[in-house]
Fold this sequence. Notes:
The protein is about 10% helix and about 45% strand. By secondary structure, the protein is mainly β. The protein folds into two domains: about 200 residues, no CATH class; about 180 residues, no CATH class. The strands form four sheets. Strands 13, 14, 15, 16, 17, 18, 19, 20, 21, 22, 23, 24, 25 and 26 form a 14-stranded mixed β-sheet that branches. Strands 1, 2, 3, 4, 6, 7 and 11 form a seven-stranded antiparallel β-sheet that branches. It has a three-stranded antiparallel β-sheet with strand order 8-5-12. Strand 18 and strand 19 form a beta hairpin.
Amino acid sequence: MTDDNQPTTYSLSRRKTLAGLGAIGLASAGAGLGTSAFFSDEESFENNTLTAGTLDLRVVYEASYDSGGTVENMADSAMGTQDGDPAAMFYDLQDVKPGDSGHVEFCFEIVDNPSYMWACGDLTQAENGITEPESAVDDTPEVGELGDAIDARLAYCEKDDEELIEGEEIVSGSLVDVFAAISGGAALDGDGVAGLAPGEQSPYDEEAVEADEEYITGACLCLFWEIPYEVGNEIQSDSLTMALEFHALQSRHNDGTTNPCEPTITTRTGDGFAKQEEFATEQETSFARGRFGDGGGPATWEVAVGPDVGSADTDNYSWSSGNTVPFSYTYDGSGNASFTLDGVTVGSGIPAPSGKLAITTKADEATVSVANLALDLDGVPTALNGPDAISASNDGPDREVTYLVFDTDAADVANAFTISGDVTVTLQGDYDTTAEEGVAFDISVE
């Protein structure tokens, strides 16, 4: 029973509160139909709370380095527990050479919930100049060869009385190959089973106690590497940097398919021309365009790509009003771009991109809709955090211009990339077919 002089408070969600009020209302109405006097009582449950669980991932790591048969466990510089800020430069080797080898071991401690584990990483290389002996065998002065020369394998592993036991292999090849395989995210299996697709892997759910501290764990991960003796002077002075990330996602109510490593690019829409509204210089360095022309005749082109309109490569295309057709724009990372609209392809040399990408739709007495947009950055499909469609429609005296911008930066577009999607142009009966820029869509590159 409650004290009528004390306020009653409830820790209930708004949805729960509304549902409870509805039930009370129905019961009271029914009681009032048959009698004017009834027994009454009131019970309350006060100060009810729900406390969210926690999820904290700790990564215990250690490394070894074998040079000429002398094994260094690197306990001072490459052993510890990572819990928070990234562990920078924990494996810093300054003078590796043919015959050297080593390994890095990662084990996982999760507090408090069983979780799916994911690994992802990136590798960058530097040439650091060409030495005299290297110049005789290395004809790529801008590209380091160290990562390609290192044999590597990523495998599950475990410790047994301080002895490292290698388990099932996840991927092997050059160090470049190994990091390429996990760059977009690799689902780890808690039982150490390799070759499982996301959703098939087991969560990390093994309970462990150490020094009176409880945590959840599973299979460890090991990266083994070796520089073969036959590697020559082409790696002299080269260096590389490895970046590894590990993610834990609570497995309760999840199926293991969510990839936290999948790269994302934010998109947003707006009114006007994207280059004027979004680009730092309000100018584009290159573009591609699909526009409604004269139906494939000689007077007006419909498909173009290039640095600007005056120097673009163009071709004809006959639009069919209301039909949805595919398009794609590809930059090869070496100064060349191609644009394909429904099988018609044009190509041109362009300046190196330096930032954002955008789609602009323009409509006059028509509707131009671009949908199902997809972005691939250097061979990696990239999720869009935001809209994947944009359209413009007008049935009056003024043309409507709208845009969708991809928030890419210089690093994103330095290498190859592809934008693809579908476009639908629907003309109204009063569209002036002599207008050259009334109906079009552009791909703009900053």
